[in-house]
Amino acid sequence: MTPDRLDLLSEGGLGIALAGALDLAQGLPRIPEGAPDRSRGARLLVDASTAPLRPVIAGVIVESPEAAGLDEGLLTEAVRFQELLHATVGRDRRAASLGIYPLDRFSFPVRYALEPVDGVEFVPLDGAERIRGPEFFAGHPLAKRYGGYGRWGEDCLTLRDADGAVLSLPPILNSRGSGEARVGDRTLLLESTGIRARSVSECLGLLLLPFIARGWSAVPVEVEGPGTHRDDGRACVRPRTLDLPSATIPEILGTPLAAAEVERRFGRARLGVRPVPHGWRVEVPVWRPDLLAPVDLVEDLAIAAPLRPEDGIVPASRTRGRYRPETLFRRRVATALLGLGLAAPYTSLLVSETAARRLPGAEPVGISNPVSAEYSYLRDRLLLSHLEVLAHNTRHPYPQRFGEVGPVLVRSAPAESGAETRYHAGVVVASDRTGFAEVAGVAEYLFRGVDVAPVRESAELPGAIPGRAARARLAGELVAEIGEIHPEVLGGLGVPVPVAWAELDLTGLWRLLGRREGD
Amino acid sequence: MPGASTDAPDGAVPISLSGPERSVLAALRASDELPIEEGRLAEELGLAPDAVRGSLQRLRSKHLVAVEEEHWSDRRLTPRGEAALANGLPERRLLDALRRPGGTLATDLGAVEGLSDEERSAAIGILRRRHYLEDGLPFRLREGAPGPDESLPEELVLKQVANGEEEIDEPIYTVLERRGLVRTEHRSRKRWTPTDEGRRMAIAAADESLLGSLTPELLRTGGWKSRSFRPYDVRAPVPFITGARPNAYAAWLEEVEEILLGLGFEQVEGPLLETEFWNNDVLFMPQDHPARSVHDALSVEGLSGHPPPEGLLARVAAVHEGRSLPGEDRPIGPGWGVPYDPAIAARPVLRSQTTAVSARFLAGRPTPPFRVFSVDRNFRREEVDARHHIEFTQCEGIIGEEGIDLRHLVGIFRSFAEAIGIRELKIRPSYFPFTEPSIEGYVRHPRFGWMEVLPGGVFRPEVLRPLGIDVPVIAWGIGIGRLALVALGKNDLRELFADDLAVLESGGE
Known about the structure:
The structure holds two protein chains of two kinds.
Chain A: H1 11-21, H2 36-39, E1 43-46, E2 56-63, H3 72-87, E3 96-102, E4 110-116, E5 121-122, E6 131-132, H4 133-139, H5 141-150, E7 151-152, E8 155-160, E9 166-169, E10 173-174, E11 187-194, H6 197-207, H7 209-212, E12 217-220, E13 222-224, E14 230-231, E15 240-245, H8 248-253, H9 259-268, E16 272-276, E17 279-284, H10 294-304, H11 325-339, E18 350-351, H12 353-356, E19 365-366, E20 377-378, H13 382-392, E21 400-411, E22 419-430, H14 436-449, E23 455-458, E24 464-474, E25 477-485, H15 487-493, E26 499-505, H16 506-518
Parallel strand pairs in A: 1-4, 1-13
Antiparallel strand pairs in A: 2-11, 2-12, 3-11, 4-8, 5-6, 7-8, 8-9, 9-10, 13-14, 15-17, 16-17, 18-20, 19-20, 21-22, 22-26, 23-24, 24-25, 25-26
Chain B: H1 19-30, E1 36-37, H2 38-45, H3 49-61, E2 65-77, H4 79-87, H5 90-98, H6 117-129, H7 153-163, H8 170-178, E3 182-194, H9 196-205, H10 216-221, H11 248-262, E4 266-267, E5 273-275, H12 276-279, H13 310-321, H14 342-345, E6 348-350, H15 355-363, E7 370-379, E8 391-400, H16 406-419, E9 425-432, E10 435-445, E11 449-459, H17 461-464, E12 473-479, H18 480-488, H19 501-506
Parallel strand pairs in B: 4-7
Antiparallel strand pairs in B: 1-3, 2-3, 5-6, 7-8, 8-12, 9-10, 10-11, 11-12
Helix pairs in contact in B: 1-3, 1-9, 2-3, 5-6
């Protein structure tokens, strides 16, 4: 069961699919046509006022094959599935929403319009007393959550029957009585409103499933307006067709399928199929919006006879594997760090708010929707992570020496995303004898490894002791920062010995080396 | 450090001997009856046995002497046992008394001379258990009771013990031991001999001019030539040395990359902060897809991105809206039925899948055949626990060439799983917006059971055509962190981010 198969998340849809898989039924399930008299005069009238907010509406009348009508199980299932569709295809009711109404308790035509909130008065589905529109929008939890989709200034969307009774306030809540399906109801209107025709028809097609699977009949409701627009609504119940060229099957599955096998597999997938020149015409029911194109049909063929690991074929290689040269450059530096006897942590790009604030003046990019404060900033230098390593290891004996090559994110207006991913090499030494000279020596050792000799210049660096920090430049470009950590920062970390660090910008260095090669 | 010498370099521990130890070791070396008992050694040295024993134990802890221990048992008669052997066991004496002429014997057992009340009761019990006595009183021997010339088993064993014989009836011996007639004495002795190291040390200990550190001065003058070096205790504790080792997870990721290199894949890389265009749109993810919401993707503060090249943007917009590509007369498919918003396309978002890297590669219109991979970090808005992490690594790979299909993807999954030592693999249908068909490979973790870690599929035409790719492309984005749990024997994704220096320095993983 995959996330695109919403039909399988209803009991009815699962039953239809299982019947196919177990060879109890084949092909496209038939939708019984309802009695014409039940849908006579059934129309949804759309007022032009809905256009700026939620212009699309569609409806289908479903009728029970039994006199007993709606039972408790089907009612519960239909409401559960309705909410699931709201959350998925309906994009939490923003794109589309659904309503279920008992045909015996309202009369057609139903009018869909935007009207003044002041003029609305109804009994909400979950209430017992009549309430006026302004109070409803001010106080009801569903109105607070979804009101923005159904309200436009001082107006709100309504569905009213021929007698002016409020059926619902789309997409928020139905009314009690005319908008409340109950056990025993024989004929129901399934309705969907939304901002797009496709989402509306997908929602409605899927909501049909619990009823179709129980043998209910379905008749589309005609939609009129605004203006002269007319839609007979048949697209809400009628299967659509998709053509599958024969050649597409072996292209994707790697093997052709015999015509009888194609028909058998589509039949088991509960799809209709007939041959056409150079392929197949497949009938797709309204509850399968996941089938968009021929490749989707091929997937249904594949699912009918799933692949096993032993079916796999290792494709012969006609290419040569290789690393990016820049990766090899970074690896060389990482190996050099190991050669210096530095421990090798593996730290995350995301750092905590505490870590981000340790160095006054640093400007790491913040996450606007963090899950927790622990992962709420993107480091702009490895030092932010490495100070946390020191803080986590205050019980470990000193001296401590470690180094890492890893990514950082640096603000960069020209970059496509507004920031650039760069790779740094960071070295930290915590020891009662360490200082600027030791880490500067390490930096020079690393520079000598790639045959460059940057020039150090005094600098004020975030978190460093003034006068004991430097930037190293090569051809004018910044390639390293070196310094001793300020005692105030060390105090915050709980580190009892001096700490010195060096951080090389390997991305910048690589570009400079490339430029030198180019020269 | 005990026994440390200031003239030993780098914490080495010279072997130091006390005076008695030196004497004992010298005597051992000189002895011609090795191994030698410590008592004998004490005699030779004229020292108290306890003092010699203490020196030997200390020399043994320095591995300079070795000991052979011999254990044995002696069985002996107790005084009561000796009396029973001489005068007869109580049961024998009772038998004899019952055989005396006229002797129905007798309610009055006092007639059996020399037996205490306790012995009489025990003897009656023994004879009754062996059915030598008639039932009831007076006591009378049954037919078949042993005659005066027939030994009782207990008598036989008593004689064997007295004679020092070893082959005896153990259950009878145990009974006699319980009756206090015999006892077992456990004995042992230690015999000592010097080890090779001890012999050398015995010689060296006699030399008062041993060298400690080999100094530059000694080297320069050659002064070492006429002197011996003081030996070290090579088993003594040494300084705890820490060193650098490759990070286990990073090293494992490199192994994965090496496997892919071996399969003909070329490495590619992309930015960690992407635009929504590259992260989603170009992969045919609808712009209102729930997975793109603020609940799933991580966005950033204060940055603004730039739209992609106009031509590419127009082509991607066309497939999203179900329109024909520029210059073509038929749409690839119905699209998502949602108006495409270029402003969304330019929004920065942390990369949620390395497929964005593949998309950037494909946008460069590579010449088929091509195979590329990227093992890199991605980010999703997940609550962090043992199986989920906000920052995770994927192994992305694509193959583009004529004739490539779904079975090849399964083949790649299988060979990849085998290469990293995973034997149990199963394939299930799956769904991803940018591949169709889509499959998912599952592997078994000892703790978590089956885990979905090998997602992949065939790129949809809606992905490939706007990028100008006209060969089929299979793609996968393996959850390499979860595979690492299996391969490295870990139980928690958080353990992959390692910053415990004690573990890192000790070479642990």
